[in-house]
Write a structure and sequence with these properties.
single chain, 385 residues, mainly beta, 22-stranded antiparallel sheet, two-stranded antiparallel ribbon
Length: 385
Amino acid sequence: MTIGSLRMAGTGQISPAEPDIAGSVTANIEFAASGMGFEDEALHQAIGGRLTGALAGAWQEGAPLRIDHFALSGADYSASGAVTIGGLSEALEVAGRIELNAREMSRFAKLSGLDLKGAARAELSGRLEPLGGSFHLDIAARATDLAVGHAALDRLLAGRAELDVSAERDTDGLAVRSLVIESSTASLHASGFLSPVSGQVELDARLADIGVLVNGLNGPVSTRISAGRTAGRWSVLAEADGAGGMRLRSRGMIDRNGLADGLVLTGTVPLAIANLFIQPRSMTGHADLDLTLDGPFALQSLSGRVSTTSLRLSDPGLQLALEDVTAAVDLAGGTARLSAGGSFSTGGTLSASGQVGLAAPHQASLSLILQDMRLINPALYSARL
């Protein structure tokens, strides 16, 4: 680290202890540094070449250490606040308020490993007892055009985004009194309490238009989850409704070892949701679910059926689509039994049947029949299978 110039100024007073009078210290410090350089390029980009700061504090024997005001400012960011540190000779307790402001988040991109953009500010207040692990924390954060380098998240965070959290932990357990995330496209509201033997979690989420995430599907989607814990066992009730005829319901139990006990999932889901993962290919149609999970959260623990009619899967690179697909997958005993059939947009049909093991090494016995299938690229070839 190098510093071109550094200016510091300070005032203060030290009062030694006297009979019936506790000793005390007060301090006021200001500094300004310029021409700063760091060997670490990410750190240099984050902090920059100029930094100013101030601190005002006081301490009296037998009383908490007070930092009545501190401030740090760079080219387009700042941090300020006040902190009280008590229990220096006993159980440490820290309380205070901190405000953070960054007008250009991109300066922290290399340091965070994320492609950060936009502006953000946050205010944190509360108290912390590090030795006992208890805390009370309130967070209010606001961002404008925030981006993290993940396409789906960036679309959700576009415009104005807000985060509000109020949580505490004590000897009874952890309580999240309120967790609220709001943006122009989505919202999430949650609260809950968790102790060693009991708990309750409530969550409501809404997406104004799932089209911001998934091509070929538009409209709102809402989700509600309610879970209660008694004697170490969780009872779960969840539902999702929305665009494309989505209607999902789930209910059941999760035991103290994290194993599902009759956790049921039923309903209909639009297959266009898969477009988020298979682009540039695309899928349309619906899948009907009637599944039960017993045991570990793994495919081999599932039983029931997944079926679909009128499924269409297209691949623009191959100039080919599989259409009018009817399929059924029956799950039982760690095995998936498949029966499917459809036709190709270029002519011909496909039928498949057999079974696949859901646990490693995933042994399979499948029969695949192609009849009169045509592969066509007008500029290169035409083939029939």
